[in-house]
Amino acid sequence: MASHKRGEKRKKVKPKIKLEKTEDPTESGELSDDSVEKVVRKKKGKTKAPKKYIGAHVSIAGGIWKAVEASVDIGGQSFGLFLGSQRSWQRPAIDKTAAVKFQQACAQHCFDPAHILPHGSYLMNCGSPKDDVFSKSQAMLVDELSRCSVLGLTQFNFHPGAAINSSKEKCIKRIAEAINHAHKQIPAVCTVLENMCGQGSTVGGQFDELKSIIDRVRDKTRVGVCLDTCHAFAAGYDISSAGGLKTVLDEFDQVVGLHYLRAVHLNDSKGKLGCHLDRHEDIGRGKIGINAFRNIVNEPRLDNLPLILETPGRNVPESEGWERGHAASDRPSLAAAAGSIPVFSEPC
Ligand SMILES: [Zn+2]
Ligand SMILES: [Zn+2]
Fold first, then answer.
1. Which of 9, 28, 41, 340 has a CA positioned 20 to 30 A from the CA of residue 182?
2. CA of 23 to the centre of ligand 1 (A)
3. Given this model, what pLDDT does residue 12 score?
4. 183 catalytic residue (yes or no)
5. pTM for this one?
6. Considering only CA atoms, which of 209, 233, 220, 219 is closest in space to residue 293?
């Protein structure tokens, strides 16, 4: 496994990434599930070979382009990042110079925008029954998508929302309303719903809740799902065995449709199956277990998706788990541990 050093170019360099106007005939209209599937399959068909794109959520401290450098340092082939402070509703805009540096770094290191998945602010609750929180969240969703556009990114992941003291049905309607509003304001960027663990009044723990949101989104080419393994397990989806993973993916396909799956967050779970607690654990140290992640990184239905680790993985003794024999911070060695996947050996 070879990680790439900063400044070192991989063999082939793509042109600078830029946001292109979609050629989909469905750009502004409402689409049926069938036609969405065809469009997505057509796009997937353009990729050369099935491949796993494993990376991690990386820091933007010191400048947004630092996320690219951090990802290169650990040999990541995909990455997640925040697009601003998680503590404030009012955030300074991303300046042009920083955006250009980010795009140049992505192009230099051959990161495809499809393998970069920004994570939304935790302040947002696009399903809030409180009008002031809803309108602030709706505005923040527009701002997040606009940041994606500035950075040349094409998709954006966020936690759908929580009903608080209202009903899940009303919450789902508001989430879809916020997404439709954001789609009107900002062209092209795809909104990606993260599945939740079913804690409290959060929406998105069950696959049918995600589908209910998708059903209400007008442009179905611009909505997708990111499957968080910890959240799924905590919500009651048993992915810990090979058979369990197959069953859960079958159910996802039946209820939502695998063509909506845009990414996976790779996290183990501190809590047991169905505990409804959002408590990530390092891979192989939680209740899901290392074998499940071996199955996940060998699952063909997860080919060509970004698989993003969200736990630091720094406190695991080298003698334990999948990190045995690798530096503790060298998280993408997960793929090497799983064997048989040439994750880092090919230029893009
Ligand atoms: Zn999340
Ligand atoms: Zn996650």
1. 41
2. 30
3. 40
4. no
5. 0.80
6. 233
Answer whether residue 99 is part of any domain: yes
Higher pLDDT, 176 or 38: 176
Query: CA triplet 221, 307, 272: central angle to 5 degrees?
Result: 110
278 is an active site residue: yes
Has 259 been annotated as catalytic?
Answer: no
122 is annotated as an active-site residue: yes
pLDDT at res. 5: 52
Reported confidence tier of residue 292, pLDDT bands at 50, 70, 90: very high
Output the CA 166–ligand 2 centroid distance in Å: 25
3-state secondary structure of 140: helix
CA of 310 to the centre of ligand 2 (A): 7
Query: Quick check: 332 pLDDT over 80?
Result: no
- Examine the pLDDT at 101 and tell me if it is beyond 80: yes
Does any domain span residue 62? yes
The CATH code of the domain that includes 323 is 3.20.20.150
Separation of CA 143 from chain center:
18
**Catalytic residue among 259, 262, 280, 285, which?**
280
How much of the chain, in percent, has pLDDT values that exceed 70?
75
Residue 347: other Cβ atoms inside 10 A:
10
- The C-alpha atoms of residue 5 and residue 9 are separated, in whole angstroms, by 8
Tell me whether residue 194 is one of the annotated catalytic residues.
yes
Which residue range(s) make up the domain with 155? 50-338
Percent of the residues in the chain that have a pLDDT greater than 90, as a whole number:
74
Residue of 4, 174, 222, 231 with catalytic role: 231
238 catalytic? Reply is: no
276 part of the active site? no
How many separate domains does the chain show? 1
In a domain, 113, yes or no: yes
Give the pLDDT confidence score for residue 273 in this predicted structure: 98
260 is catalytic: no
Is 87 among the catalytic positions? yes
Contact yes or no for 261/157 (Cβ under 8 A): no
**DSSP tag of 272:** P
Report how far ligand 2's centroid is from the alpha carbon of 298 (Å).
20
In a domain, 256, yes or no: yes
Q: Taking residues 164-175, what's their average pLDDT?
A: 98
Q: 121: buried, middle or exposed (CB in 10 Å: 19+, 13-18, 0-12)?
A: buried
Kindly report, residue by residue over 209-255, the tens digit of the pLDDT.
999 999 999 999 999 999 999 999 999 999 999 999 999 999 999 99
How far is ligand 2, taken at its centre, from the CA of residue 8, in Å? 30
